[in-house]
Amino acid sequence: MSESLPVRRIAVGVTGASGAIYAVRTIAALLDIGCHLDVVFSEYGRRLLMDELGPEAKVDRLPELLAARYGERAAGAACHRCAHRVLGSRERRADGR
Prior knowledge:
Helix content is 48%, strand content 20%. By secondary structure, it is an alpha/beta fold.
């Protein structure tokens, strides 16, 4: 009788530090081994993605970006096992400033 391993749920935060390619590679690798991801981009992380990987590299097009760089398998996994969102300045500041 074989036991299945529990699904790993991992949160990945992408900030504004240089290294967008490493974030994308990490996301693809984690999806490839079957992890379920919650990916959160800061506003600077979103900008960094486009600055370092090109104007087509947008957060809302993450599955297409993964498919272009790592194949359809990564893109399919991203659609099913990866939730992403952007934390912008308006969400960080509840005081309206």
